[in-house]
Amino acid sequence: MKIVFNPRQNGTAMIVVITILAMLLLYVGANVRALDHLQREIKLVERRQIRRVQPASLKTNTAPVFLLPPIASPPSTNR
């Protein structure tokens, strides 16, 4: 039994494969672009959230308040 290939069928199969690959590449490219836009949107939302949560003292011109630990008194020498 001999298998005979028709050159016309081989050409059609190649065109179908190339078409499917082109559609897959377009799909991947569209997804990469969408992910890039989503990443930018997430960064923007994160910046807004950080600004919203910052303490009020950082938003105004008041000087920041630093709390110092209490100073221990020296031991007394009276016995």
Q: What can be said about this structure in brief?
A:
By secondary structure, the chain is an all-alpha fold.
Model description:
The protein contains two helices and no strands. The protein has 79 residues and is mostly helical. It has a domain at 7-54. It is rod-shaped, with a radius of gyration of 35 Å.
Give the rounded overall mean pLDDT. 81
| Biggest β-sheet strands, sense, barrel | none
Which class best fits the helix and strand makeup? mainly alpha
What percent of residues adopt helix (DSSP H or I)? 55-70%
Please, how many helices?
Answer: 2
Distance between the termini: 119 Å
Radius of gyration: 35 Å
Overall outline = rod-shaped
- The counted number of beta strands is 0
Order of helices and strands: HH
Tell me the strand percentage band. Answer: under 5%
| Poorly predicted regions | none
Protein traits:
mainly alpha, 79 residues, single chain
Give the SSE map.
Elements: H1 7-53, H2 56-59
